[in-house]
Fold:
Amino acid sequence: DIQMTQSPSSLSASVGDRVTFTCRASQGISNYLAWFQQKPGQVPKLLIYATSTLQSGVPSRFSGSGSGTDFTLTISSLQPEDVATYYCQKYDSAPHTFGPGTKVDIK
Amino acid sequence: EVQLVQSGAEVKKPGESLKISCKGSGYRFSSHWIGWVRQVPGKGLEWMGNIYPGDSDTRYSPSFQGQVTISADKSISTAYLQWSSLKASDSAMYYCARLGRDAYNDPVGLDDWGQGTQVTVSP
Structure:
């Protein structure tokens, strides 16, 4: 089965910073790659699907890119409300594995 | 409005059985895969498996195959996750979520989630 990894496991940045983190698949996957945001004590929320399509209602400071084995999520200007853990997930063929997550907080 | 409403928190003893539920509304339940996701306290999200309620086609993660059973009753728009013999290590939050589709019928990932069911297994 394809394994998903994410880096870094955590990061701390200042408000307004551009933040990028990575999701890597152990083998090439289709563009069926999603990103989720989970704030402490809350249900995960879909941010981006199909690698780069923003889910309705998600702020435009979030963007996704990538192909093959390497994918990225970028927050163009980090806001206090973006403190959360971010997970990637492949959802083409089963198993729909999640990455281990990147925890983001404010410096 | 799409809604997934899960059954309430459970406290069980090791060896007991359990079945938790996830009731969908606001969309055609039989036409969308429903996934189950585990989250152990302080840990990440783990995909357990999913089911297509229309024909009960079910897929499992290798990590959960044989450990749980996923089922659905499309007549009442409800999916289930069940254990025949719980272990302490099954203590976690369990989420159901819908695999949505876009206007072109392409999957968009887990776009709507239930509120979660906390399962605690303790002697």
In short: DSSP finds no helices and eleven strands in chain B.
